[in-house]
Please model this.
Amino acid sequence: MSTSVEFFKGRKAVIATKHSKETVMQPLLNEHLGIDCFTIPGFDTDVFGTFAGEVERVLSPIDTLRAKINAALDMSQQDLGFGNEGSFGPHPQIPFIPCGLELVMMIDRKHKLEIVASNLTTETNFRQETINNIQALETFLQSIDFPSHAVILKQENNAGLKKGINNWEDLYQASQALGLETNALIAEPDMRALFNPTRMETIKATTQMLVDKILQQCPECHMPGFGDEQKISGLPCEWCGEATDLMKQKIIVCQHCQYQVSYEVDQKASPMYCNQCNP
Ligand SMILES: [Zn+2]
Ligand SMILES: [Zn+2]
Model:
């Protein structure tokens, strides 16, 4: 039986990045999968959308990521590629907490594999504030850990914009140039990976998640990347037996041979989660 590593050992892979993500991705892919990574000098991911909003991202995050990696594969004529895409905004369940969703994907055209790891995290300095004076700006900067993390300042109509500000001199220049004393400005952390060490750490952790998933093989056909979970809700209430929203079953299906593993939850739901007993 071959191991996942044998699918990849000694192969070359392109990392689709403009913002130095290879610094955290390459060592993990090399150590665990024996892959030799490279980047394309001048590869421009901005055409797929930017955080500051000059270029709108039109596709969903996962489609954007797939398009980026495929562009890098076409350009470099390779059959193995990796990439990352992040999205930032309010937490889906807790709207006042900012969070990040990082996706890291591998596309292997040789073995027809697409494997993706997804990491929803509250470990982010993402936020946005309208700033009217320099004191408010300084308070905001503290909250995003400036200057180790860079900031973006922009005018409300998006007319003026300065990105990648990571020192006090540039900051005062930018706030003057954009007219902080006369206009309100929008401030947000620069989420590009090389300007945001917190985000870079999350990309590293998500790359490790992807490696772990690649190393899991289907018990039947042995293809790498076995582990996409499908959760089925409907765990019965322990009082009345009515189906609740809690998970009753987890199914993992191989995307190649359709082999399935299913795990049943071996308990009943507390009546606290039951619409019948606790409406
Ligand atoms: Zn399989
Ligand atoms: Zn019940």
Remarks:
- DSSP finds six helices and twelve strands in the chain.
- Residues 4-124+195-215 form a domain with the Rossmann fold fold (CATH 3.40.50.10150).
